UniProtKB/TrEMBL annotation:
Keywords: Membrane, Transmembrane, Transmembrane helix. The chain crosses the membrane at residues 23-47, 59-78, 118-138, 150-173, 179-197, 238-256. Coiled coil: none annotated. It comes from the Bacteria. This is ABC-type uncharacterized transport system, permease component. The lineage of its organism: Bacteria, Bacillati, Bacillota, Clostridia, Thermoanaerobacterales.
């Protein structure tokens, strides 16, 4: 019981550190929020112009706007800065101190990310939701059961993104800098996850490629599920997410072990 209590206290402290690290730079947070609001409003008028020229069968105008705004809110939840943080510590040499701590680096980053996600969701996500209600009073048919199912799907998506970020960050052990990889990551995730628009609107040939990749579970799958537009079973979604996480974790462990050997070689 003491071990569990100690781990819980440690986790809470790390979550608090992550939350406070975002609160310190709250001015920057609000500047980013205003920039995001401007972008979303531009997208609103862009899609309104598109729908003036013709309708899209799968989605109404309200559906599209709700999808885009919800994708933005969910983006605040995901730990998308983990890889850049690892790259920074590798570049400065502080990664050695993180590795020597009694707490695993994955545990440190995971709990701190939870704190950051909580702050961004509460502040930025809350404001974006208010803007959504003002622009579009969307009626969402949501039961208690479906809400908790959505929460579980989103949690698994969070875990998938976390391990994917860890994998991208570990590449810094080989390249020192991940600037190019970060840019490539944002493009790949933005397109193949449904971050920019629903994947179902993609051309059939491109859609087949996307379906072979697991990135759609990041944005497209959770949003489609809560909008009640998904034609797949909840249990099948959870199984697919779990398998994807397991394979990603295995790949991360293999790359991480090899990266540690590289550090030993560099250190003599």
């Amino acid at each position: 019981m003491e071990t569990i209590s100690t781990k819980a206290k440690l986790g809470f402290k790390l979550i608090k550190i992550g939350f406070e690290s975002q609160y310190i730079y709250r001015l920057g947070t609000f500047l980013v929020f205003y920039l995001v609001c401007f972008t979303l409003i531009m997208q609103y008028f862009l899609w309104r112009a598109i729908y003036h020229s013709g309708d899209i069968k799968q989605y109404s105008f309200n559906d599209i706007i709700f999808y885009i705004f919800l994708a933005q809110i969910i983006s605040y939840v995901f730990p998308t800065d983990v890889s850049s943080k690892i790259a920074f510590h590798v570049r400065t040499g502080d990664i050695i101190h993180l590795l020597l701590k009694p707490v695993k680096i994955e545990t440190q980053l995971f709990y701190e990310s939870l704190g950051k996600s909580a702050y961004r969701l509460l502040i930025n996500g809350g404001f974006i939701f208010i803007v959504l209600l003002v622009l579009l009073p969307y009626k969402l048919e949501l039961t208690v059961l479906r809400f908790f199912q959505f929460a579980l799907i989103l949690l698994l998506s969070y875990v998938f993104v976390f391990f994917f970020e860890l994998l991208m960050g570990i590449i810094a052990f080989y390249t020192t800098s991940t600037w190019g990889i970060q840019s490539f990551k944002y493009v790949i995730v933005g397109i193949f996850s449904g971050r920019l628009m629903p994947i179902s609107l993609y051309p059939p040939v491109f859609r087949k490629i996307v379906d072979w990749l697991p990135f759609r579970i990041i944005y497209f799958t959770p949003i489609e599920f809560i909008m009640n537009k998904a034609n797949y079973d909840f249990c099948n979604v959870v199984k697919y997410q779990t398998v994807s996480i397991a394979l990603l974790l295995l790949l991360y462990v293999l790359v991480y072990r090899n990266a540690l050997k590289k550090i030993k070689v560099q250190g003599g």
